[in-house]
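User: Okay, second chain of the day. Same drill as before: sequence in, structure tokens out.
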Amino acid sequence: MAVQFARVGKVGAARLRYHDDPTPRPEAQIRSILNMNNSLSLPLDLLERILPGATLQPDSILAAAERRGLAYKFVAIPNWAQTEAQYGKTDLFDLIFAGKPLPPGEVVVVADGSFISGELLCCAVDELRQRVSLSSQFMFDGDVVFMWPQVAGLTVFHHEGGFTHIGW
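Assistant: Same drill. Structure tokens below.
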């Protein structure tokens, strides 16, 4: 059974903080952000709050992080051009998040297919690996942006075979 990408998700009782605004966001405000009618408005709004001036493209996100002085380490996957086909969805997921505990709460995932379908994955963090595994989309055949609203962080997978975590 394949899991389809969801348009909206639920939010726990966590409070949201952004890099440029240390004010905690009440749950009601988080809910309003995550329940917008236009699903692509959701990640754009979150991205603007987390990393102002960035677009949903990895190069833009990395440039915006550099402008804001946010430290990150871009990890290139060795021999990506030759080995890309041998990685499965969960193999890449495990590689990207190896040894890094996932932030609490919800995650919003925007993959290249989101721009065609208008859909994105929004789920509880503890469901993320399973949802990626069961998804009808491969997901990692293009750019992918994971947004962690509760910690104002991002994880970026670049289609040329690399990834980074920003703000967490």
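Residues 1-38 have pLDDT under 50 and may be disordered.

User: Thanks, on to the next one.
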